[in-house]
Amino acid sequence: KLTSLDLQPVITPKVVQGRVHLKCAYSRPFSKPPLQYVVVWSRQSTPGKKEQIQRDTTLQSFSYIEMNGVNLKLGDTVFCTVTAFTRDTPEQQSLPEESKGFYAGIKFLPESLQIAEDDKEHILTVLSTVPIACPGHDDSCKITLQLSTEDLDSQLPGPPDIALSACQVDLLQVPCSESSCAAATLTVTAVTDFARDGNRISRIRAEPVGRRDLLWRAYTPKDVKVTVRDLPTGNCYSFTDPHIITFDGWCYDNYKIGTFLLCRSTSRVFEVHVRQWDCGGHRSATACNCGVAVQ
Fold it and tell me: Last residue of some domain: 193, 210, 229?
């Protein structure tokens, strides 16, 4: 057998005649007679298992495979394995060398988030590892992703604990570099819900919209798991005739009639006014909350 030739196969995405392809390129050692190569394309079917989808025999130092949405789809992890031999002695082959797995599709970075109800914005990058092909002149070279959130803890009431800065993002066609052929960013913030509901898990889902080609139409990217750490929040109250409990737990009564400033923030434009009317009649001088205004 031939020894290991250090072929170092690498997969990169390419657009060929308006369609998305993957290219397996490898080094070409000098040899007389010249070497030929067997390139086996495979994809990961289940964890730890691969299935062959194409086999090429070529004199070139590269091989192409089309992502047609049928035998090779977005969301697949693809490998190419290269073996060299000479035409005179095809039974003497080099040791097969396999490329790193290439994930073809949409990626979120980071793949999961752990955030807290502290009003901080967290940047989420969404990118495509394959180029955005434009087969027709009327098609804009972009992929539009519709974003949605869902609470995975269905036993708790209320909406998800996260808010996004955008409902959809556009991935515009750019030259591929460093495993990214198109990218966009958005921010994720934990919703301060004033509820002691423990740590909750939500997910962000992205769905391509408006594409007519089979490759993108039948594809749903992986969800992003977001764990929100619950933080205690302060509360103040004004109730019945009215008794008042402040943020720091101090209690007192305010039986007066009129409009009052209940609370005001010292760090942002936020204040609450309450209006109290006479509700005791002739029997007792008692005031009750009848209105509230919030800025």
Answer: 229
